Fold each of these.
Amino acid sequence: MTTTAVQASVVVPTHRGAHRLPALLTALAAQDHPELEIVIVIDGDVDGSERVVRRLAAGIDRPVQVVVLPENRGRVAALNAGFAAAIGSILIRCDDDLELGPGFVAGHVARHTGSAEPIGVVGLCRNHFPDTPYARAYGTPADQEARATAYQAAAGTTWRFWGGNVSVTRATFERIGPYDGDFREYGWEDVDWGYRLHEAGIPVVVAPELEVIHHLAATTTAVRAGRAYYSGSARALFRAKHPQARLCPGPPQVGTWRTSAWHALVSLATPVCRPPHLDRVGRVVDGVARWAPRPVGRKVVAAVVESAAQAGASRVRAGN
């Protein structure tokens, strides 16, 4: 592959992704952008992911780098290893559970080559939910509202949407530096990196044409609340690092029921909305959401998600 100014590297961090990677690699092989390198970072191979990738790479007419971390070190370590290995002048982050069209890479490249100044580019992820009580009551409407909020966001706030479908030039990545290793658990390493872009004066552009489908793992209240717990911890860490940053309200970010009674309910629920209780609480709430009127189910799920996030945040404040 020749090196040109529009050469792109797609960096894919993955853990337990053996069943997801074939679809993603097939989509990347079908991209209509000619100058493309694929970098797969396997964050501890516990399911034969390396074997899957190397077998598929043999049939792909594009350079494929496979970086294997000897043990699971977390998403930040995988991202940093991937960007360090990549050789492209445009660096695209792509999570392993995204569904890509053939113009995905070309769209990211066009945003950078068409800009007179350095920018960060965000493509949103439209979550694909199975038909579950959680999805009907909470997941689908929350996802729709989150994307609507992102598309309407003021220019100075778009850094909050940095995530699993983003790109920058190599020069910008080297200016900002690697993802922050202090974010060792789930979430907010992306928001932190986006905020650092913003602090450096680099505009973050939300590109509607780059929206992709996301086959997410959080399809029940228990899984969503578990992620909210660790995300709450990471959010508290972000606040400690960047006290000047203006954040939108935390979960649930849906509805308008933020009253004193609501906050009291969330506070009361917080002690039980933490491991190891979340599986049991989630099953109960999904049972309620299955039969309750949808507005009621949505509030019940939201209460558990927000309580879990608060429990995670209190864990950081307590120094645990």
Note: The domain at 8-222 is CATH 3.90.550.10 (Spore Coat Polysaccharide Biosynthesis Protein SpsA; Chain A).
Amino acid sequence: MYLRLFLGMAAGGGLGALMGHFGQCSSGACPLTATWWRGAIFGAAIGAMIAGSMATPTPQ
């Protein structure tokens, strides 16, 4: 489960960083992708939420 969560965070962070780098707003109207590091933070958070929702529970 932790590996899936980490991979989701890494993939989301990477995509968010790319969006922040190539899709920068000069007006500052896009707060999620204004800079590459801000895009990476929000991308990792969204990736963690998606990966966490797809995780299967462990049998007890």
Note: The radius of gyration is 14 Å.
Amino acid sequence: MGRWTYLRYTGDMLVFGSSKRGLWEVAEAVSTMLTRDLRLSLKRQATVLAPVTEGIGWLGFRVYPGTTRLDREGRKRFTRKTRRLEMQAASSPQAEDRAVARAASVFGHLAQADTHGLRRSVLDGLQRG
């Protein structure tokens, strides 16, 4: 099967390798194990072989060699969520504490990708607003 590397998070899995044939063999082996041992199956429409230079969608991010970016829908959700949290924070001191804690969580999640510019832009907008 050759050399390969994988990432897994709950039910999602990415497998990286240098050979298409080897990757299809890994997919088949994983499928066989899931069916035999766990009575589960792979979603065939989600089993994709693609060059990493195109980026791989993964948990709301787009993973490229050497960088990870937030995908388009993720950027929209992040922007909407921070605006909503800003409005909630303005309603009362207690709501402000909750909104700040939730915003810290959202910003921490986004810090897992190369999103410094986006986070800075949103914070600058909040401070101006």
Note: The CA atoms of residues 1 and 44 lie 20 Å apart.
